[in-house]
Amino acid sequence: MNIKRIIPCLDVRDGKVVKGINFVGIKEVGDPVECAMEYDEQGADEIVFLDINATHEGRGTMLDVVRRTVQNLTVPLTVGGGIRNVDDFHELLRAGAAKVSVNSAAIKNPELLSEAASRFGSQCVVAAIDGKKTAKDKGYNVYVNGGRIDTGLDVVKWAEEAERLGVGEILLTSMDADGTKEGFDIDMLNAVCNAVNIPVIASGGCGKLSHFIEVFQSTSVDGALAASVFHYGELTIGQIKKELKKNNLPVRTL
Known about the structure:
The chain is α/β, with parallel strands linked by helices. The protein has a single domain (about 5-245), classed as TIM Barrel (Alpha-Beta Barrel), CATH 3.20.20.70. It is built from eleven helices and twelve strands. The protein has helices spanning about 30-40, 55, 65-70, 85-95, 105-110, 110-120, 155-165, 185-195, 210-220, 230, 235-245, and strands spanning about 5-15, 15-20, 25-30, 45-50, 75-80, 100, 125-135, 140-145, 150-155, 170-175, 200-205, 225. A hairpin with a 6-residue loop joins strand 7 (about 125-135) and strand 8. The two termini are about 20 Å apart.
């Protein structure tokens, strides 16, 4: 069994870490560099930055924040939001990001994934997929532009295509569960995990310690990403890893 990763996610808007519910009701919760350093000290396996308004506003990602953050981290940083082309990948990797997460631009131009994977290596390319149950509850559709636009694409089929195009990992967020603290979307995660052979990171819905245990015991995800429970001090990464070890789930310890 692979080492299970605990990954704090920092949604960043206008240089501040923010958090909402179901992608709306956004509130500021802190400074991204300070938050990232705190989670690194707690034992995070990775940190994720998502510039949540970059694509919607038609601008690039916050390179200066990335540079300042990486200087203070001992773990990999994944950055997403506002990625439009391979030059954006290049700039973020030069700024110190270990991986680049892409969502909207890959839907518009799927070959961006294969081009980036070919140029920088699959390990640097993450397909971020925001999924939501369809109106008839017969599957999940892919949304883009920060959850504003329904593409009509099936989540599982798009995950399979992303793997074919060469991505090294999938960051799968449930829009239905996001910010609700009612647990990860186990059904959607299993649907994707069963369809691909690359690592899948679970995102959206974590609200308590048992949710981390559940997602690792009930699915084959490699990592669990969360935001609110960390930002508001409800759980520490150390608490989570201690509980995972009790349940015979392999984790990296300090």
